[in-house]
Amino acid sequence: MPFHMFGPPHLPVLPILLSSALALAAGAYLGSRKGMPASLVRAGVKLRARMRGLQCARGAHMRGDASHMYSTSRNARNSSGNSAFDAYRSATLSKLEQEAAELRSYLDELRHAKDRSEFDAFLEERRRKPANEASSP
């Protein structure tokens, strides 16, 4: 059927058709070249590295290990380009990791002290009971 039988194309459809044709032409041109442009190669490498990092983070999260998320070795790989900021960030993160370890240790000591005091109170209560009450059913 001839095109004129369908009527004039609607105006909102034209930009979509033109952008699709342009995208196909650009893809065909880039695909036909022997190599990809260097900027696309770098972007692909960065994307793959980021995906690997996310997969590692997700795997560690599923295992319950979140320490890798704040480690300085990970941040050394992800440099911001500003060496002063990177030094500040690594120092701050190492300080936070140390404080977190100290806090965990302190909380463990508190739990142990609480458990010990509850156990001592239980033993003292058992010692105070007369022997005849302890043997009765």
3D architecture notes:
With 137 residues, this protein is mainly α. The protein folds into two domains: 33 residues; 63 residues. The protein contains five helices and no strands. The protein is elongated. The mean pLDDT is 75.
Topology:
Elements (H helix, E strand, L loop, with lengths): L12 H20 L5 H26 L8 H6 L5 H46 L2 H5 L2
Q: What is the total tally of β strands?
A: 0
> What structural class should be given to the helix and strand makeup?
mainly alpha
Given the C-alpha coordinates, what overall shape results? elongated
Please identify the oligomeric state: single chain
What profile does the largest beta sheet have?
Answer: none
Tally of structural domains:
2
Distance between the termini: 100 Å
Number of helices: 5
What do the pLDDT scores average to? Answer: 75
List the secondary-structure elements in sequence, H or E: HHHHH
Percent of residues in β-strands: under 5%
Q: Segments where pLDDT lies below 50 for 5+ residues?
A: none
- Fraction of helical residues: over 70%
Radius of gyration: 33 Å
